[in-house]
Design goal:
By secondary structure, this protein is an alpha+beta fold. The protein has one domain. The strands form 3 sheets. The protein has a 5-stranded antiparallel beta sheet with strand order 1-4-5-6-7. A two-stranded antiparallel sheet has the order 2-3. A hairpin with a 4-residue loop joins strand 5 and strand 6. The longest helix has 45 residues. It is globular, with a radius of gyration of 22 Å. The protein binds flavin mononucleotide. Flavin mononucleotide binds next to helix 4.
């Protein structure tokens, strides 16, 4: 049977229209679920940075919510390190804040927000750990992650990346649990509170021998350097240093 050109074009147009309606409906209908999953994913990363969720451990929404009962999100003012008690951390939307030009840095950070959400891991009413958001350039991508610091504000408890696009097997090894485990117990700051932690070329050895260094990722010196640069930035005066200092001075450390 032969169809006329009019029929073929008409059929194609109707098919396209129906498909576009279906896709738009699915997109709008699933948006809420996507938002929920995005929040859940971020919460999971916070827990992974603090090793409250182990690598490969499957955690459902209920478990994340249960673990998050001991996590207190806080909004801080970056430049002063002040906790903004009056800002509701649950409804805080960082994206809606104006961006400020970042001070000169090696981490490829062009803009920063003056207010940032951090997470305090609690035991009763005592802070045991901080989980701080970090971002900076790797070789190919902007890498987003979390650094977990002990309440002594010096000892690293974990580092995790939840969004990066470095090469799998090279820079992408930043998500390898074995490499992530190397961070535990290393020291972020020296005795003068200057940020000292760095990813070096080659092996760093055990914590006791080399507390300020972590093994470089083989074949990925540029990603490794990116990790060092972003840690130096976020641990510095333009990052979380004022907040951590004010926590130490509060006598709660
Ligand atoms: C296809 C391809 C992908 C690469 N991906 C990365 C990467 O993700 N991170 C990185 O630092 N270097 C990557 N490199 C290597 C860099 O170009 C550079 O050679 C390397 O960082 C130098 O590190 P090395 O001194 O440890 O060999 C890649 C190279 C190629 C050819």
């Amino acid at each position: 049977m032969q169809y006329s050109m009019k029929y073929i074009f008409g059929f194609a147009a109707v098919l396209c229209f129906v498909c576009s309606i279906m896709i738009s409906t699915a997109n709008v209908g699933l948006r809420e679920r996507q938002e929920i999953n995005k929040v859940l994913d971020k919460q999971k990363s916070v827990l992974q940075a603090a090793w409250l969720v182990q690598p490969g451990e499957k955690v459902n929404r209920a478990r994340v919510e249960e673990l998050f009962k001991n996590v207190r999100p806080r909004i801080i003012e970056l430049s002063t390190g002040k906790v903004l008690e009056e800002v509701n951390a649950d409804t805080f939307d960082e994206e809606s804040l104006p961006s400020l030009p970042a001070p000169t840095n090696k981490a490829g950070i062009r803009e920063i927000k003056e207010q940032v959400k951090i997470y305090e891991i609690m035991e009763g009413d005592k802070v045991t750990m901080f989980v701080l958001p970090i971002v900076g350039k790797g070789l190919w991508s902007t890498m987003h992650g979390f650094l977990a610091l002990d309440a002594d504000t010096r000892t690293i408890r974990g580092l995790t990346y939840y969004d990066q696009a470095e090469t799998p097997g090279l820079g992408g090894e930043v998500v390898n649990p074995k490499w992530k485990a190397l961070w535990q117990g290393r020291l972020a700051y020296d005795e003068n509170w200057s940020a000292k932690i760095a990813v070096i070329k080659g092996p760093a050895g055990p914590v006791e021998q080399n507390p300020y260094a972590v093994d470089g990722l083989s074949g990925a010196t540029l990603t490794s350097r990116g990790v060092t640069n972003m840690l130096q930035f976020w641990l510095g005066e333009n990052g979380f240093a004022p907040f951590l200092k004010s926590f130490r001075e509060s006598g709660r450390a």
